[in-house]
Write a structure and sequence with these properties.
Elements lengths: L2 H9 L5 E6 L3 H12 L4 E4 L15 E2 L3 H5 L3 H17 L4 E10 L4 H16 L8 E3 L1 H7 L10 E10 L1 H14 L3 E3 L2 E9 L2 E9 L5 E11 L5 H8 L7 E12 L7 E5 L8 E6 L2 E5 L3 E3 L10 H14 L11 E10 L15 E5 L5 E5 L5 H16 L33 H6 L14 H10 L5 H8 L2 H4 L1 H19 L3 H16 L6 E4 L2 E4 L1
Parallel strand pairs: 1-2, 1-10, 2-7, 4-12, 10-18
Antiparallel strand pairs: 3-6, 4-6, 5-6, 8-9, 9-10, 11-14, 11-15, 11-16, 12-13, 13-14, 17-18, 19-20
Length: about 525
């Protein structure tokens, strides 16, 4: 992917594009892949970077949703389990099997959760990743060496999927481009074009050059996540908001807090959420919360009470209590949940089903859902949008479509596995020259990101093309000058640009470091 080439192609268009997609997260990128795979003309614009928002801030799981099974939403679980299986086949370099253990501290939890997970297995059918079973106390400790053993009676093991969210987003963008779509980041939609009351395109501004231009389109698809209501109001100032924003936060700990190959799943915490402790990229991700918020932001921050909740629960279930100085990074994401007609006060109870709306002017909005079901969301929205655009209806081609990077070959270097079939090319650019002793990031990766993955800033490289910001925020700040130097060479930028980039990244990354704290009554209390 090359941003200059894509921008030139978009601006040189003389005919309306079939679909103009606003939003470069999981939903928008999946929609671009689906439409392009059907042979339609597609343009996608993203105001920041691909997966800048919610789509890079998940729990890193591809799952059917055990909690939805508890809620009785079997249809959502069935759909998610089918899509989980398809993701593992279509992007095996990014999606893998992970065993989860539910530790049991009461006698009835083994049979209760054991039966539930058997139902989960049966729903997955041929797309299942492995059979669940009951574990003795000894087997539970063997799989979770650092689990709290007081009152532990056993456990239940089951299998789900794990992935790297922003890496999948980047590979979806590359897949869409290979299929003929034109995608650009840092291009903000400033308004909708209309012709006789019908939406006929979008007005956008190139955030890099400051230039404004228009993109005529037969159909405009609003896939802006938590911001869909803002774009809907540009279409019709009278519409009511449909999004309830819920914040989920995670802390990242060193691997020593959860050695072994299994994750921990706590089915029900004090706020009714599922809590996970998940091995990921040689660290451990612990979360998540479900906090209703009124404010929307591209850079949400964990609230003190959320941090205390996750730290307290981590200490409750792990033999070693995590201290603030142990936390490598803290990240927060905002979920776009579709409001029910009744009370939306408890966001943990709001369905994660996706919703598609078509306004009287023809604006198509898709929102809700989750990463696991991104492909099905895209299929559904293009089925609708083909009618709005007045183009030929064509069969969906993505059920077995291989995502860019697809390979079954084993990549020996752990840090290159997420690149799949691109690993050889990255090696040739300098895969041995690490940029920081505590990070696996190499010079070759940064050059690859700049040349082929449309990375434009230090943040793009350290937050989403690699996961350095989430895995070790402090080390990523120290690596920023080295990344800036390489990007400056790639983009022919001067030292002033490098300095500005390093300063901007340092300011952003400080928000991912655990905040200052003080001790009070022998417990951690956040300032």
């Amino acid at each position: 992917m090359n941003r200059d080439d894509a921008m030139k192609a978009i601006r040189s268009r003389t005919e309306p594009v079939d679909f103009c997609i606003i939003g470069g997260g999981a939903t928008g990128l999946g929609t671009a892949v689906d439409a392009a795979a059907r042979g339609h003309s597609v343009v996608l614009v993203e105001q920041a970077d691909f997966a800048k928002g919610t789509s890079s801030r998940s729990t890193k799981l591809v799952h059917g949703g055990v909690r939805y099974l508890q809620q009785g939403n079997v249809s959502l679980v069935l759909e998610a389990l089918r899509e989980r299986g398809r993701m593992s086949k279509n992007a095996p370099h990014l999606v893998s099997d992970l065993s989860f253990v539910i530790p049991n501290y009461k006698w009835w939890e083994g049979p209760f959760y054991g039966i539930g997970m058997k139902v989960y297995d049966q729903l997955a059918g041929k797309l299942g990743l492995g059979a669940s079973r009951w574990l003795s106390q000894e087997e539970t400790v063997e799989r979770l060496p650092t689990i709290e053993t007081e009152h532990l009676v056993g456990g239940v093991i089951y299998h789900d999927g794990q992935f790297d969210d922003s890496r999948l987003a980047v590979h979806l963008a590359m897949t869409a481009e290979e299929l003929g779509a034109e995608l650009v980041n840092y291009t903000r939609c400033t308004g909708l074009l209309k012709n006789d009351g019908a939406v006929s395109g979008v007005a956008v501004v190139d955030e890099e050059s400051g230039e404004s231009f228009e993109i005529p389109a037969r159909c405009v698809i609003n896939a802006t996540g938590i911001f869909v209501d803002e774009l809907r109001r540009q279409d019709d100032a009278e519409v009511k908001d449909i999004i309830a924003v819920s914040q989920g936060i995670h802390i990242v700990l060193p691997r020593e807090f959860l050695p072994g190959d299994s994750a921990v799943m706590i089915p029900k915490t004090a706020d009714g959420r599922v809590l996970f402790a998940v091995p990921w990229h040689d660290c451990v991700v612990v979360g998540t919360t479900d906090t209703p918020l009124d404010e929307k932001s591209l850079e949400p921050r964990a609230l003190p009470e959320e941090l205390e909740f996750v730290m307290t629960h981590a200490a409750q279930y792990l033999t070693k209590d995590p201290m603030p100085e142990d936390v490598l990074s803290v990240y927060a994401g905002l979920r776009p949940l579709v409001r029910p007609s009744g009370d939306a006060g408890n966001t943990a109870e709001i369905s994660r089903d996706h919703t598609i709306l078509v306004s009287p002017s023809g604006l198509v909005t898709v929102t809700g859902g989750k990463w696991t079901t991104y492909r099905k969301m895209a299929e559904d929205v293009i089925d609708h949008a083909e009618m709005i655009a007045g183009v030929d209806a064509r069969e969906c081609e993505t059920v077995r479509l291989q995502i860019h990077g697809w390979t079954r070959q084993e990549v020996p270097e752990p840090h290159l596995r997420v690149y799949g079939s691109d690993a050889d090319d990255i090696r040739a650019l300098g895969a041995d020259s690490r940029l920081h002793p505590e990070l696996t990031l190499t010079e070759g990766e940064v050059r690859w990101h700049a040349r082929h993955e449309m990375a434009r800033t230090i943040e793009d490289v350290l937050a989403r093309r690699t996961r350095c910001l989430l895995l070790n925020a402090a080390a990523s700040i120290e690596a920023a000058p080295a990344v800036a130097k390489i990007l400056a060479e790639e983009f022919d930028q001067d030292e002033a640009w490098q300095t500005a980039q390093v300063q901007a990244y340092g300011k952003l990354a400080q928000g991912y470091c655990f905040p200052k704290f003080k001790r009070h009554n022998h417990h951690q209390r956040l300032i």
